[in-house]
Amino acid sequence: xxxxxxxWDFNGTIINDVETGxxxxxTLLKRRNMPTIDSVEQYHSVFxxxxxxxxxxxxxxxxxxxxxxxxxxxxxxxxxxxRKARLCDGAKEALDFFKSKNIPQIVISATEVNMLRGHIEHxxxxxxxxxxxxxxxxxxxxxxxxxxxxxTRHSGAAPLMIGDTVHxxxxxxxxxxxxxxxxxxxxxxxxxxxVGVPTFVNLEELIKGAF
Length: 211
Fold this sequence. Notes:
Elements lengths: L4 E4 L6 E2 L1 H14 L8 H7 L4 H8 L8 H15 L4 E2 L3 H10 L4 E8 H11 L7 E5 L8 H10 L5 E5 L2 H9 L3 E5 L6 H5 L5 E2 L2 H8 L1
Parallel strand pairs: 1-4, 1-6, 4-5, 6-7, 7-8
Antiparallel strand pairs: 2-3
Helix pairs in contact: 1-4, 7-8
């Protein structure tokens, strides 16, 4: 194993929260009599980073309602709905695989850090992780600084980033580490395949194909 650490994305990679995220979004849209998201495929067609662009793709107008207000409302709904979300297929097996290799595992997420810790604890997987890294706000901005700060504290490390979005590949590139993506979450296999990193349908296929 050439990697010293595994950097995990959380949403859509470890936790299967696409459906609960759509439910949360649709609640906001229905309150405003806006068209809702009717399928995962439709959701994949609009989801992107930065999250503000995703909101614009859905139809929100920040000149009418600022993003900060919408983010607070969405988080309130999602904190209820995400409790129904379960681990992605193969996530437990992948966590066990790296644990068996004695490779430290770290979560790096655009979720506010205290909420992130709560979600991980709810799933019963806290003990797998050496560090849980999230943002200090609810605005789901870039994870690049989190990655760069982590690398500064671990000079000489050779981590592997595992995620489900183009942004995860951007984070990996920013800190000069390898990345693999799987289409278990918030972007389609077609979208993540354009990035130029190894892509897999799910974590089971990833573990078999990459290791």
